[in-house]
Design a protein that fits this description.
single chain; alpha+beta; six-stranded antiparallel sheet; two-stranded antiparallel sheet; 16 helices; binds adenosine monophosphate; binds magnesium ion
Length: about 475
């Protein structure tokens, strides 16, 4: 069967020093785990041919479809604060780009597709567990309405990969607005290649930020746009209790999508200092540090653009600083807006943010479940929220302030409940559920994966049959650490 992809590969037309061109490495026995039919249709791809043996061969990297121009992209990055001048796609191959149903250009990339010139010590492969985790969490993000890369498919390779032990190998087909990262700019800056940075800026403006095209200084305009989008994204993360886990500059998308779901996690019990990643010993990427880290990463991006901001070095630094300072304002505004929606507030009053913070403090003291407190507030009597506090007195004190604020806010109570339910999900990919799906998958049983995906596809809708998926973990189910698994 012919597997048609309407490719138009703009990144592959950039100069040769942007990538290494090579095809994926074929695998022994491709087998489809899951195809995202709805996403395929959005991309103008045919789900039936993608699920056919020829389609699965493409999704496993065993066959290259017509029109593809496969490549591994070059990039650098700060990993845990240390600069690495060359990282690059060490286990991912960009097949090409298609234009989706909204007219947006989307990358189609195979993650786990075999070694590339950027592989360094790795094997270029991906293990089943991390592939399932990325599939689940990225699609949960999409259903929550938070900007993210997507998962088009997961396939088994029929080959083992060696981590601590031998584990089944898999390939994830990732879809993204692009895979350009802060680290892509850093790669060229580290080489003093200003021409490449100009080329990259033009590409990024055309692709992601056309609103910066007409500006007097396109470099500064682009940077301002990136800062704003990134601030809005991090505010969304905080509002759902998400911890990315590896906010290295190579894992920050220029397009403002959440990318690289490694040792990430949604919090159960709320704590601002929460860390899950096994490799984040110092808590650099803890929940509440994420805005500060995003700003730090953007400062690294600004450094790559300084010569283009202004020929005068001092003026360039001044401008970069002003743009970076705007991050805090953008973030505060987006986060406050998000918190108001979570609390059911339609009007704006000073003190709203503090009201939210007082609740978070009560939750931290009581180790309350982040998701269930806010979902509980969204019920007409807010009783579900109260039940999340071992000693409800602190919550009651807070709730009377909240009720007073709601009374002042006015509006229709029924409409408020509907709006709050649309801002406070009932279902998130809880760690213990993801772990359960992975353990079943390792035994060849993907039915739990299918069931979890069905529940997470409607995160804001009460699903009485799925009540189990809304429960916090029992003590013995708590996942304390997450791993990259690379
Ligand atoms: P990540 O931790 O996925 O953001 O990856 C950081 C860097 O390590 C990137 O350059 C990856 O391409 C590379 N990398 C991660 N896992 C592997 C692997 N299994 N084989 C080769 N390179 C890898
Ligand atoms: Mg990465």
């Amino acid at each position: 069967m012919n597997v048609p992809f309407p490719f138009d590969n703009s990144y592959a037309r950039l100069p040769e020093r942007f990538y290494a061109k090579l095809p994926p490495t074929p695998v022994a026995a491709p087998k489809l785990i899951r195809l995202n039919d709805a996403l395929a249709l959005q991309l103008g791809l045919d789900p039936v041919s993608l699920a056919s043996p020829e389609g699965v061969a493409v999704l496993a990297g065993a066959a290259v479809p017509r029109g593809a121009d496969p490549l591994a992209a070059a990039y650098a990055g700060h990993q845990f604060g240390n600069f690495v001048p060359q990282l690059g796609d060490g286990r991912a191959i960009l097949l090409g780009e298609v234009i989706d149903g909204h007219g947006l250009r989307r990358d189609i990339q195979l993650k786990g597709a075999g070694p590339t010139p950027f592989s360094r010590r790795g094997d270029g492969r991906a293990a089943l567990g991390p592939v399932l985790r990325e599939y689940i969490v990225s699609e949960a993000f999409a259903a929550l309405g938070i900007p993210t890369t997507r998962a088009l498919a997961a396939v088994m390779t029929g080959e083992d990969v060696f981590r601590e032990t031998a584990v089944p190998g898999a390939v994830l087909t990732r879809v993204a607005a692009s895979h350009i990262r802060v680290g892509t700019f850093q790669y060229f800056a580290a080489r003093g290649d200003v021409d490449a940075i100009k080329t990259l800026v033009d590409h990024v403006i055309a692709r992601h930020y056309p609103e910066a095209a007409g500006a007097e200084n396109r470099y500064r305009a682009l940077f301002d746009c990136i800062v704003a989008r990134q601030a809005a994204l991090i505010a969304r993360w905080l509002c759902v209790g998400f911890i990315h886990g590896v906010m290295n500059t190579d894992n920050m998308s220029i397009a403002g999508e959440t990318i690289d779901f490694g040792p990430c996690a949604f919090m159960d019990a709320f704590h601002p200092g929460m860390v899950y990643s096994s490799i984040d010993h110092a808590g650099r990427y803890a929940y509440a540090n994420q805005p500060r880290i995003a700003q730090w990463n953007l400062a690294r991006l600004a450094e790559t653009l300084l010569p283009l901001f202004d020929a005068d070095k001092d003026r360039a630094v001044e401008q970069a600083q002003a743009s970076l300072n705007a991050f805090s304002e953008h973030f505060q505004r987006a986060y406050t807006r998000g918190m108001r929606a979570k609390l059911g507030l339609l009007t704006e009053r000073t003190g709203d943010l503090e009201l939210g913070q007082e609740l978070l403090q009560c939750m931290a003291d009581a180790e309350s479940d982040f998701t269930n407190v806010f979902r509980g507030l969204s019920a007409p009597d807010a009783d579900g929220a109260r039940g999340q506090f071992k000693d409800p007195a602190a919550f009651d004190a807070w709730a009377s302030n909240w009720q007073a604020r709601l009374a002042e806010d006015g509006g229709d109570a029924g409409a408020r409940v509907i709006a709050m339910r649309a801002a406070n999900p009932a279902f998130i990919p809880r760690n213990h559920l993801v772990e359960e799906v992975i353990q079943a998958g390792l035994k060849g049983d993907f039915a739990p994966f299918e069931r979890l995906m069905a529940v997470l596809s409607k995160p804001y809708v009460d699903q009485p049959d799925a009540a189990r998926y809304a429960l916090p973990p029992r003590p013995e189910q708590v996942v304390h650490q997450t791993f990259c698994g690379t």
